[in-house]
Design brief:
Blueprint lengths: L2 E4 L5 H5 L7 H17 L1 H12 L10 H10 L2 H19 L6 E3 L5 E9 L2 E5 L8 H14 L3 E6 L9 H10 L3 E4 L2 H10 L9 E3 L4 H10 L4 E2 L7 E6 L5 H12 L6 E6 L2 H15 L5 H11 L1 E4 L3 H11 L3 E5 L3 H5 L7 E4 L5 H6 L25 E9 L1 H17 L3 H8 L10
Parallel strand pairs: 1-11, 4-5, 4-7, 5-6, 7-8, 9-10, 9-12, 10-11, 12-13
Antiparallel strand pairs: 2-3, 3-14
Helix pairs in contact: 2-3, 2-8, 2-9, 4-7, 5-6, 5-7, 6-7, 8-9, 10-11, 16-17
Amino acid sequence: MMKLYRLEDLTPGQVLNRDLRAEQDVEAVVDAIIADVRARGDAALRDYARKFDGAELDALEVSRQELDEALDAADPYFLETLRMAAANIEAFHRRQLHDNFVMTEQDGVILGQKYTPVERAGVYVPGGTAAYPSTVLMDVIPARVAGVPEIVMTTPAGRDGKVNPAILAAAAVAGVTRIFKTGGAQAVAALAYGTESVPAVDKIVGPGNVYVATAKRKVYGKVGIDMIAGPSEILVLADGGCNPAWVAADLLSQAEHDRLASPVLVTDSEALAKAVQAEVEAQLARLPREAIARASVEDNGKIILCQSLDKAIDVCNIIAPEHLEVCVEDPFAVLGRIKNAGSIFLGRNVPEALGDYFAGPNHTLPTSGTARFSSPLGVDDFIKRSSFIYYTREALGKVKDRIAGFAEAEGLHAHARSVTIRYEEGGGTK
């Protein structure tokens, strides 16, 4: 049963109850996999596909024929839904694009900033207990909007050596350039360092299990990464006017992801808290993924009862959840007080699944409290900004003594000399 606590009885650590550290054996396994992929390339990827996925792979790359077959076999209604969702996601992310700018206010001085997409992005899409075509859309479309020329996707194949057709259909809709049949830490290593078949990328994005997250952390520096994703989280902030069956269903929508997922209800209503507790039990019994959801609820779920809605909002900001549902009478009155959350769902008619699949904002979100300092995946993850500076000789001459003095104050005399030499007799004029 989902545990019910009163806020005043919890320590700060019990409110959070998180640990991002990988177990030592995970670290060792990931280190070995990365080293193996770097040493043996494609051969290592085929061996891991056989070992972990039960797949015998002749070719690692998904062929055009396989992609066309997946599109032809796709249910037309589902394909239409993918295209509608893709349009929503693209429209939202196009609003994130930046304009280059130039400043010319000072005589002889031109300053500016320009944005450039990365050359090649790697997108990791999980396999295993469930297929996630939604992740394909969410992670690929912002890269395409950013103008990334090449988008490389990795995802594990099934025992038949084929990638889930729903994932392939989503990849075709999203605009993936190339797809490779590899998953886990080995896929991250392949994207970071390259193999005979898989090209090395500049940045890796996408969620995964603890092995994937650990591998991303270890290759960071060789490549960029979006974030270190932890288990999925949902926090429902609810007042006494909520339907407990709806709240329970929303909590379970994340609990079914995996056993480590964290469903949390924060409320100022004891009656709602107890009603949701009962509803969660009743609905669990009807879920196809009951065993996974039940482990999540019993091990990581909690209901926190607060003395007021103000206190409940404070708890939300402390937890800084991945998904925050604001299920109160006037959600827009609360919005301004929410400081820490990956994605915010406003009102009683906005289940988290709306954001997962269709609305447009990204569902690759900061977890484990990192919403305190990080943001959802977006266009900015696939672009770099560069500043540029131009001064005429006359403009530099007006400030040369100040720059040289600044450099000398830091003890960096060669810095100072690089400015003053331009104005010394015999120092040149170009």
